[in-house]
Amino acid sequence: MAAFFLRTKRTEGIANLYTRVKKRNPYIKWEYVNTGIGVDIETWQKANRSIITWNKFIGGEGKELNVKLDRVSQTIDMLFAENKLQSNSDKTILENALALIANNEAIKAKEEIKERQKKEQERAKAENLRKQKQIIHFYECFVNGIVEGSIRYGKGSEYTKSSIQIWKTFGRYLKEFCPEDKTFDDVTRLFADNFRQFLEKKQFMEMTINKYVTCFRKLCNLAAEEGINNNAVSLKVWKERTVKGSEAKAEVYLTEHEIDSLYAMRLSGIEEAVRDVFFLGICSGQRVSDYASLNRSNFKITDRGTNIISLYQVKTGTYVEIPIVDERAFEICEKYNYKFPDVNKRDINRYIKVILKHLSDSVPSLKQDFPTTLTAIERRKEERYLSYQRRIESGEKLTGEDRHYYVKLKRIAEEQQGSPIFRRNENGRVVMAKYELIGTHTARRSALTNLYKTGLFDTREMMSISGHKSERVFEHYIRMTATEQADRIAEKLRKLKSGQL
Known about the structure:
Blueprint: E1 4-6, E2 14-23, E3 28-40, H1 41-47, H2 51-58, H3 63-81, H4 91-133, H5 135-148, H6 161-177, H7 189-201, H8 206-225, H9 256-264, H10 269-284, H11 288-291, E4 299-301, E5 307-312, E6 319-323, H12 327-336, H13 345-359, E7 369-372, H14 376-393, H15 400-415, E8 430-433, H16 440-453, H17 459-466, H18 471-475, H19 482-497
Antiparallel strand pairs: 1-2, 2-3, 4-5, 5-6, 7-8
Helix pairs in contact: 3-4, 5-6, 10-13, 10-16, 14-15
């Protein structure tokens, strides 16, 4: 093998290797033949310190370089054997041959680099596709899109604040349930069943569980539409359970008599403000996000002289016009000069129960008990109270926040005749007085149910006021009891027999 050396005073960087060629017959003497092979100067110097370091070098990181140097030596021998090097003037022939070797190595190196880059790109592409298929990653991209408005639904409508909040809340439980590396390919029936069981363990009401199951189903469908989810099974395993009456929170409405009595109450301060805003909700039949933000611009008169409330619903963006037929609505408008009190949902939910509890002394129907189901928050509150009681019975002394919260829960329990927060009937079901079940949404439910009870309007007319697009959803708002339905049917039959119908 030929000897190779460097021609540089530098101690760092890259430099080409040279070799010497000497031959007696024919006589040739070339002291410096450039091989065209570049090496790291520092590495080369270290490798050539001794036979031991050289052997170690060519057996490790210098293995490829050693192969190249062998090819240079073999090329020189071959050119002499073929009589292509006859005199000193033939040096160009040798340098061209060696340059060809160097060029081939460079081409090979470039090809290897290109191949590595291609494989890296393919790996990155596969990794990106795998990441896109990750459920959590797709969810986060989707939520960011609906928040900033770049992702829309239907014919380009933006997601409403309430819809965005539902998706965000769903995401909190999704991330708790689903590992980050799970993809849509992993969604099976067992996976879907496990998600439902996960929610059930959190003691959510069945309606809430159905809502989050629906979100997961929609997420799988959205991913399929984007070409990210190719798992057909993931589109079929999400089933909403029919909510039985015993599994749902009791939903009540205020009768006309109860509404009249509520309006006639003499109130002041925050209670008066809450009652008046709540009454506007009854007059309009809208959600709290709509009736708690009414202003003068919402009140209009049609060409035929009909007073209406017009608005775009916050939740759905649906435009509705509601005829105002209750003069008391105008009394409230005049009282505040259309600058209605600024009360939020929490204030209404809190104070309307207090107001109606006072009213129940003169309107006994508000004290009627209804079997109901506890929400997850109510259930945790009751369990916490019972836990405190067990700790006290075991001799533990509560301190700090625990004591403060226990005193608060104990006061509530005492108001419920000593029951652990919530009363039960003889069958063990939780029961609540009607006034305890009233909330912001009761205004909308009361308006639609009382409108239905008149028997004057068909479903389409009532839906034009409520803004519902589905009869199935609309009918959920009609909350007459079985007894009321029986009385209503009997009254119609009596009128029919007497010729009044």
